[in-house]
Amino acid sequence: MSTPTAGPATGTATAGTPTGIATRITTASAGITLRGLTKSYGTTEVLVDVSATLEPGRIYGLLGANGTGKTTLLACIAGHTFRDGGEIRIDGHDPLEHAPTLARLCFVHEDQAYNDAFSVADILAVMPTFYPEWDDEIATRLMRRFRIPRRTRSRKLSRGQRSALAIVLALASGAAYTFLDEPYLGLDATARGIFYDELLAVYAASHERAAAGTTAPRTFIMSTHLIDEAAELIEEVLVLDRGRIVLQADVEDARRTAFLARGFEADVLALAAGRELLSTRRLGGIVTATIRGELSSDERQRAEAARVSIEPTTLQEFVAAIGQHGESDQPAPHLAPHPAPLPASQSASESRSLQ
Amino acid sequence: MTDWTDGRPIFMDLADRIAADILAGLIPEETQVPSTNELAAHYRINPATAGKALNRLVDQGIVYKRRGLGMFVAAGAPEALRAQRRDAFSEQFVRPFVEEGRRLGLSIDEIVALVTKER
C-alpha cells in the first residue's frame, strides 16, 4: 500500500504525482477543500454553493434538517457521485482523477446496497481488496461487540444490524478520510455506546501512529440527526441548510451563536431587534424565541429585569431552528461563529417582526 | 452519556471535575493525571475537548507537563484549589442565596438567623 500524500501538512508541491493532476492547485494542502460545489438531481438543486476547508485528523459533524443535502455532499466528496460544478481537493487531489486518493476514502451509505448473494462474511472478505489499510483486528472486535451474525445474507440483516455492519466497515477500513452517513439508524443505546467507544479508540490510535510519524491521523465526517449525543464526540460542526453551509465552527462556539429567550412577546421582540430571529414558539402571551447572537451582560440584566429568561441553546435546538428559519425558500444567511451584536441605537430599523 | 452542566462548555466542566478529584485527594500531589485519550475514552468526548480541560488546569498551575511522561498534579495544588474556591464562594453561593432569600421576602437578619441555625 502506498500513501503518497499521507504526510500530515507537509505542504509540498505535488509535481511528482503519478497522474500529474493537481495543476490548478500548486501546493498539496492536507485536508479537504471544497470550492463552489454544486449538484442537482433533475431540476432539484441539492448543493447550491458549498465551500469549506477541513483540516485533517479531526472528527466533524455534518448537521442539518432532512433533505438539506448531507448525503449528497458526502457522496460527492467520497467520489460516489459526480458533482455538477466546483472543486474538491483531498490532500491536494481531485479524488475522481486520482486513484490513490480514492483508495484512502471510505463512505458507507446509510442504505448501502450489498450484493444479495453475499453473506456478511463474504463482504468482510472482500474489504481488504478495496481498503489497503483494512484492519482485521478491529473488524473482528466490532463484529463480536455488535453481535453481527457472519453467515447471514446481507439483505436479511435488521436495520440495526445494517447500521452496525456499516460502522464495522467504516472503522476497520483504515481509510484516512471516513464518511459516516447517519451511522445510528436503528441502533439502541448500548450499540451507540459501543460505536462511540470504538470511534474514539480508532481515532486516538490513528493519532498515536501519526505522532510516531508513520501515517496521517484519520479524519471522520459524520452526518447525524442525534446531534446532542454526537456533539461530545465532534470537534467541529458544519451546518447545511438548503444546499449551503451556513455555519462551520468549533462545537462550543457553534452553541454560543444563538440563545433562547422566553417572556412576553414585546420584551422578547425587543431583545431580538437587530438580531436574526431563527424560530419562535408561543404559549398564550409567552413567546420562546431562538435568537442568533450573543448578549452583553448589560443586555442580560435588562432582559432579566423585563422577566425574560435567557438560556443557552443546545446544538440540537440551534440546528432545528436553522432548519425552520423563515419556513420559506430563503436559506439562512451565513452565520459567523461570533457575530458582533449591533449597538442598540442601530438596531431598531433592522428589527424583524414576529410573524 | 455524562451529565454535563447545561450550556457550559464541556471542557470547563471536565476541568472542574478533575480539580474536584485533586481537591478530594483522589489524585495526590506529584502523581499523574489521566491522559487526554484516557479522559476522552472514559467520558466519551472528543480528545480535543479533554486536551482543553487539561490545558485549563495547566494555565491555573494545578497540573504541569513532564516532557514525554504526561501531566502531573503540581505541589500545593489542593491548597491552591481551596483558596480559589474560597474566593469564588461569595459569588457562587452567598450572593445567589441572599438574592433568593430577598425574593422570598426574608430580611438580611432573618437570612443570617437561618445560617446560624445550621451551625
TrEMBL record, chain A:
<dbReference type="InterPro" id="IPR003439">
    <property type="entry name" value="ABC_transporter-like_ATP-bd"/>
</dbReference>
<feature type="region of interest" description="Disordered">
    <location>
        <begin position="321"/>
        <end position="355"/>
    </location>
</feature>
<protein>
    <submittedName>
        <fullName>ABC transporter ATP-binding protein</fullName>
    </submittedName>
</protein>
<keyword id="KW-0067">ATP-binding</keyword>
<dbReference type="GO" id="GO:0016887">
    <property type="term" value="F:ATP hydrolysis activity"/>
</dbReference>
<dbReference type="Pfam" id="PF00005">
    <property type="entry name" value="ABC_tran"/>
</dbReference>
<dbReference type="GO" id="GO:0005524">
    <property type="term" value="F:ATP binding"/>
</dbReference>
<dbReference type="InterPro" id="IPR003593">
    <property type="entry name" value="AAA+_ATPase"/>
</dbReference>
<feature type="domain" description="ABC transporter">
    <location>
        <begin position="32"/>
        <end position="267"/>
    </location>
</feature>
<keyword id="KW-0547">Nucleotide-binding</keyword>
<dbReference type="InterPro" id="IPR027417">
    <property type="entry name" value="P-loop_NTPase"/>
</dbReference>
From TrEMBL, chain B:
<dbReference type="GO" id="GO:0003677">
    <property type="term" value="F:DNA binding"/>
</dbReference>
<dbReference type="InterPro" id="IPR036390">
    <property type="entry name" value="WH_DNA-bd_sf"/>
</dbReference>
<keyword id="KW-0238">DNA-binding</keyword>
<dbReference type="InterPro" id="IPR036388">
    <property type="entry name" value="WH-like_DNA-bd_sf"/>
</dbReference>
<dbReference type="InterPro" id="IPR000524">
    <property type="entry name" value="Tscrpt_reg_HTH_GntR"/>
</dbReference>
<feature type="domain" description="HTH gntR-type">
    <location>
        <begin position="8"/>
        <end position="76"/>
    </location>
</feature>
<dbReference type="Pfam" id="PF00392">
    <property type="entry name" value="GntR"/>
</dbReference>
<dbReference type="GO" id="GO:0003700">
    <property type="term" value="F:DNA-binding transcription factor activity"/>
</dbReference>
<keyword id="KW-0804">Transcription</keyword>
<keyword id="KW-0805">Transcription regulation</keyword>
<protein>
    <submittedName>
        <fullName>GntR family transcriptional regulator</fullName>
    </submittedName>
</protein>
